[in-house]
Amino acid sequence: MNVAKSGYRVFSANSSAACTELAKKITERLGVELGKSVVFQESNRETRVDVKESVRGQTIFIIQTIPRTRDVNTAIMELLIMAYALKTSCAKNIIGVIPYFPYSKQCKMRKRGSIVCKLLASMLAKAGLTHIITMDLHQKEIQGFFSFPVDNLRASPFLIQYIQEEIPDYRNAIIVAKSPAAAKRAQSYAERLRLGLAVIHGEAQCAESDMADGRHSPPCVRNTTGHTGLELPIMMAKEKPPITVVGDVGGRIAIIVDDIIDDVGDFVAAAEILKERGAYKIYIMATHGLLSADAPRLIEESAIDVVVVTNTVPHEVQKLQCPKIKTVDVSMILAEAIRRIHNGESMAYLFRNITVDD
Predict the structure, then answer these.
(1) What is the CATH number of the domain that holds 194?
(2) 311 Cβ contact partners less than 8 Å away, ≥ 6 residues apart
(3) Residues 92 and 173 in one domain
(4) Across the strands, what pairs with 285?
(5) Residue ranges of the Ribose-phosphate pyrophosphokinase N-terminal domain (predicted)?
(6) 284 & 305 share domain
(7) How far is it between the farthest Cα atoms of the chain?
(8) pLDDT tens-digit series, residues 170-187
(9) What are the DSSP E strand ranges found in 57-166?
């Protein structure tokens, strides 16, 4: 394809080898060359971006991944500065391809904190982005934070294909949610694979919903000094039941599904419980493999047999440390999304057989 006549360019927002790997796979599938740019940090640690070719009047796709080896805030600044550089160079449209959207877990108000995900959405719009392509947002409602279109792609077709092709006896498997909060995602996998569903529930789990919002958690002891205001009922403290596995996993392959695997403590604990309940093999399927801190070592020493993640986040170093980690390539769907957006084609094909609440 002649890049000059195609009317669009694909840039990588990071010049490191780890971050350009996914960008190169996408451009190879599209048949275009990766845009010429340099992203680096100066001696004072300020990020600088130099775009080496004209982008006037063109549609630009910026691919940015968030690697473990670099600061997530640096990656965000690289994306913002590159978007602003392209905006001031008269690019027609600037579309961010951000497979793993950072700060997506901070999408709810907790006590006196802030909704950082909403702040990041506003910053991206201010920098000049007009559209983003992402994958498996932590909460689908995050799309409402943006003032421009968001295409939230799904990795589940690729992970389901891995289950069907790489687990010979997957018909003897059961899909497991490691907490009640993950049950909806697990149910989707179970229905597509025609498998059973199990849910782990109990005090060993710490779901996001347990991190109380101060506005909905009044103190148990009333303040008797001064004006007490309205006489609100006292909220009883939560008490989790003993650990329970709802569903029979005995003699089965247990497949735990989630969107992010970062701190693996919960997954390791869930694997031990499933082993105690009779599961003879344990797989973990997740879209984003952040695998921070000692995650590779903990996985290697645990009862987990295989961890399958996609290449939305670079994790080659972790794979060298832990042979249990396997990767599924999702560059195909990202490349197809770019092609369809540029050609003005419908994106519905990428969401076929995926329901609204999935």
Answers:
(1) 3.40.50.2020
(2) 21, 22, 25, 327, 328, 329, 330, 331
(3) no
(4) 257, 308
(5) 16-128
(6) yes
(7) 76
(8) 999 999 999 898 999 999
(9) 59-63, 93-98, 131-135, 150-153
